[in-house]
Amino acid sequence: MTGTTRSSADLDPRRRKALFRSWHRGMREMDLVLGSFADEHIGELTDAEMDIYEVLLDEPDPELFKWVTGEKPTPSPHDTHLFRRIVDHRRHRQF
Questions:
Q1: CATH assignment at residue 22
Q2: Is the pLDDT higher at 45 or at 95?
Q3: Mind spelling out the 3-state secondary structure of the chain?
Q4: For the packed helices 81-91 and 28-41, what is the interaxial angle rounded to 10 degrees?
Q5: What is the pLDDT of residue 95?
Q6: Which of 32, 45, 63, 77 is the most exposed place for a label (fewest CB within 10 A)?
Q7: Range of 72's domain?
Q8: CA distance 50 to 33
Q9: Is residue 70 part of a domain?
Q10: pLDDT tens, 28-79?
Protein backbone atom coordinates (compact mmCIF):
# COMPACT_ATOMS: atom_id res chain seq x y z
CA MET A 1 0.00 0.00 0.00
CA THR A 2 1.35 3.40 -0.93
CA GLY A 3 -0.54 5.67 1.44
CA THR A 4 -1.86 7.87 -1.33
CA THR A 5 -5.37 9.18 -0.98
CA ARG A 6 -5.53 10.73 -4.43
CA SER A 7 -6.50 9.10 -7.68
CA SER A 8 -4.21 9.81 -10.61
CA ALA A 9 -6.97 9.25 -13.17
CA ASP A 10 -7.45 12.98 -13.85
CA LEU A 11 -3.72 13.75 -14.10
CA ASP A 12 -1.61 14.10 -17.21
CA PRO A 13 1.20 11.52 -17.59
CA ARG A 14 3.85 13.87 -16.19
CA ARG A 15 1.93 14.52 -12.98
CA ARG A 16 0.87 10.88 -12.70
CA LYS A 17 4.52 9.82 -12.79
CA ALA A 18 5.51 12.48 -10.23
CA LEU A 19 2.71 11.35 -7.90
CA PHE A 20 3.91 7.75 -8.14
CA ARG A 21 7.53 8.77 -7.54
CA SER A 22 6.49 10.87 -4.55
CA TRP A 23 5.01 7.81 -2.84
CA HIS A 24 7.74 5.35 -3.88
CA ARG A 25 10.90 7.01 -2.60
CA GLY A 26 12.60 4.18 -0.75
CA MET A 27 12.60 6.02 2.57
CA ARG A 28 9.19 5.95 4.24
CA GLU A 29 9.65 9.38 5.83
CA MET A 30 10.13 10.94 2.41
CA ASP A 31 7.18 8.96 1.03
CA LEU A 32 5.04 10.67 3.66
CA VAL A 33 6.47 14.15 3.10
CA LEU A 34 6.47 14.18 -0.70
CA GLY A 35 3.53 11.83 -1.15
CA SER A 36 1.18 13.83 1.04
CA PHE A 37 2.35 17.06 -0.62
CA ALA A 38 1.74 15.57 -4.06
CA ASP A 39 -1.68 14.24 -3.04
CA GLU A 40 -2.77 17.75 -2.15
CA HIS A 41 -0.93 19.88 -4.71
CA ILE A 42 0.23 17.94 -7.78
CA GLY A 43 -2.82 18.93 -9.82
CA GLU A 44 -2.30 22.65 -9.23
CA LEU A 45 1.46 22.93 -9.83
CA THR A 46 2.44 25.00 -12.84
CA ASP A 47 4.76 23.56 -15.47
CA ALA A 48 7.61 25.64 -14.02
CA GLU A 49 6.88 24.26 -10.55
CA MET A 50 6.76 20.75 -11.98
CA ASP A 51 10.25 21.32 -13.41
CA ILE A 52 11.48 22.19 -9.90
CA TYR A 53 9.58 19.31 -8.30
CA GLU A 54 10.99 16.74 -10.72
CA VAL A 55 14.53 17.91 -9.94
CA LEU A 56 13.80 17.45 -6.22
CA LEU A 57 12.49 13.95 -6.91
CA ASP A 58 15.91 13.08 -8.36
CA GLU A 59 17.68 13.94 -5.10
CA PRO A 60 18.69 11.11 -2.73
CA ASP A 61 16.31 10.65 0.18
CA PRO A 62 18.88 11.02 2.98
CA GLU A 63 19.97 14.44 1.72
CA LEU A 64 16.46 15.61 0.94
CA PHE A 65 15.30 14.52 4.39
CA LYS A 66 18.05 16.57 6.05
CA TRP A 67 16.98 19.65 4.07
CA VAL A 68 13.31 19.16 4.87
CA THR A 69 13.95 18.72 8.59
CA GLY A 70 16.46 21.58 8.75
CA GLU A 71 19.25 19.27 9.89
CA LYS A 72 21.30 20.52 6.95
CA PRO A 73 20.96 23.80 5.01
CA THR A 74 19.15 23.52 1.71
CA PRO A 75 21.57 24.10 -1.18
CA SER A 76 20.78 27.28 -3.09
CA PRO A 77 19.65 25.57 -6.31
CA HIS A 78 16.95 23.77 -4.29
CA ASP A 79 16.03 26.60 -1.93
CA THR A 80 12.98 27.60 -3.94
CA HIS A 81 9.48 28.80 -3.20
CA LEU A 82 8.21 25.31 -4.03
CA PHE A 83 10.66 23.66 -1.63
CA ARG A 84 9.57 26.04 1.12
CA ARG A 85 5.94 25.07 0.39
CA ILE A 86 6.89 21.41 0.84
CA VAL A 87 8.62 22.16 4.15
CA ASP A 88 5.63 24.23 5.30
CA HIS A 89 3.27 21.41 4.29
CA ARG A 90 5.33 18.97 6.37
CA ARG A 91 5.20 21.25 9.42
CA HIS A 92 1.42 21.38 9.31
CA ARG A 93 0.88 17.62 8.91
CA GLN A 94 0.62 15.00 11.61
CA PHE A 95 2.42 11.84 10.47
A1: 1.10.150.250
A2: 45
A3: CCCCCCCCCCCCHHHHHHHHHHHCCCCHHHHHHHHHHHHHHCCCCCHHHHHHHHHHHCCCHHHHHHHHHCCCCCCHHHCCHHHHHHHHHHHCCCC
A4: 110
A5: 55
A6: 77
A7: 13-91
A8: 16
A9: yes
A10: 999 999 999 999 999 999 999 999 999 999 999 999 999 999 999 999 999 9
